[in-house]
Amino acid sequence: MFTKHDNKPFLIAGPCSAETEEQVLATAHGLANAGIDLFRAGVWKPRTKPGGFEGVGSPALPWLRRVKQETGLKTTIEVATAHQVYEALKHGVDVLWIGARSTVNPFSVQEIADALKGVDVPVLVKNPVNPDLELWIGAIERIRNAGVTNVGAIHRGFSTYAKSKFRNAPYWEIPIELRRRMPELPLICDNSHICGNREDLHEVAQQALDLNYDGLMTEVHPTPDAAWSDAKQQIMPFVYTEMINNLIVRRESSSNPEFLENIENLRHKIDEIDLDLFNLLARRMRVAEDIGRYKLRNNISILQTTRWNEILEKGFDQGRSRGLTDEFVEKFLAAIHNESIVHQQQIMSASGSLAGEQKH
Ligand code: PEP
Ligand code: MN
């Protein structure tokens, strides 16, 4: 259900929250000709702090039925409890989604899954707020185990303490790994909650399409500045239409022989460079092992923080002048450093067991 059709991504759009009947219908009518596949609205809102607008609740559900009657658009809302599932189904909501704050909690996900048993309604599972792929996969499995056949994933980014231009850091490697582990699972990018602003929405949507995502979920409001939740990231229906029209949808592959030959040659080059990298890494580990033996003879500890800082600082400098991001350099060097420590530990523990044997 949540897949590309005619080379067009599966589009979900609508307000962060259903606020009033007029606001919901104005958004839906504004989107009716934008070619969207599903109209979203938050009815129960999980807010960080109490006292804010926590959603209209069940009284908003008939408004969504009106959306369907007047525009023909199918509807989707977030559900977080069994009661919310029953309410949504009773009012004919077509698709349910599980929010990031529920995906983190297996009790909540299981409660929702139990409420869905015997009702094969399509469900989208947002990533958990924390960057934990297993938790995301676990939630998807719980919903599938309840007998739901139409399941998709929504990537909405991850909470971080670090400052960044994004409200929720995308960590693209996590959904990419999800794709590798569950290749048939439709994957949708919620560019609104990743960005937390209007300016970057197009860029993030394009990045998702470049990674062959199946669709997009975006928050749209008739008067964004006056929205009762997530005002900074919502856009007007005409701005949304413009954004969608400016996206480039790329094909997954081509049967053009010239393209195939060129891509094959380039991939061959990549494979050769990867092999060079592995040979270099093996060489580096041999040197690390020599250092390990030398430290052992002199009774010096393996981990030396000042040396590690020195490697990192030098790495940032060398990486920057070669167009590599600090983020990559740090991860790359940390992985190499960690592997070196493992090799040195093997040397130390082998000598330990040798000493043990000698005692007997
Ligand atoms: C939302 O879609 O409005 C929402 C609350 O999202 P998330 O669960 O991703 O924070
Ligand atoms: Mn929102």
In short:
The chain is of the alpha/beta class. Helices cover 51% and strands 10% of the residues.
Total helices: the number is 13
Number of strands: 8
**Order of SSEs:** EHEHEHEHHEHEHEHHEHHHH
Secondary-structure class:
alpha/beta
Mass-distribution shape: elongated
> Could you tell me the radius of gyration in angstroms?
25 Å
Description:
The chain is α/β, with parallel strands linked by helices and 360 residues long. The chain has 13 helices and eight strands. It has helices spanning 21-31, 61-71, 82-90, 100-103, 106-116, 133-145, 173-181, 191-195, 201-210, 237-245, 257-297, 305-320, 326-359; strands spanning 10-14, 38-40, 74-78, 95-98, 123-126, 151-155, 187-190, 215-219. An eight-stranded parallel beta barrel has the order 1-2-3-4-5-6-7-8, surrounded by four helices. The longest helix is centred in the C-terminal third of the chain and has 41 residues, at 257-297. The protein is elongated. Bound molecules: phosphoenolpyruvate (PEP) and manganese (II) ion (MN). Residues 16, 42, 46, 99-101, 126, 156, 190, 193 line the site of phosphoenolpyruvate. The site of phosphoenolpyruvate has 10 residues, from helix 4.
Features:
elongated, single chain, alpha/beta, binds phosphoenolpyruvate, 13 helices, about 10% strand
Per-chain topology:
Layout: E1 10-14, H1 21-31, E2 38-40, H2 61-71, E3 74-78, H3 82-90, E4 95-98, H4 100-103, H5 106-116, E5 123-126, H6 133-145, E6 151-155, H7 173-181, E7 187-190, H8 191-195, H9 201-210, E8 215-219, H10 237-245, H11 257-297, H12 305-320, H13 326-359
The chain binds phosphoenolpyruvate and manganese (II) ion.
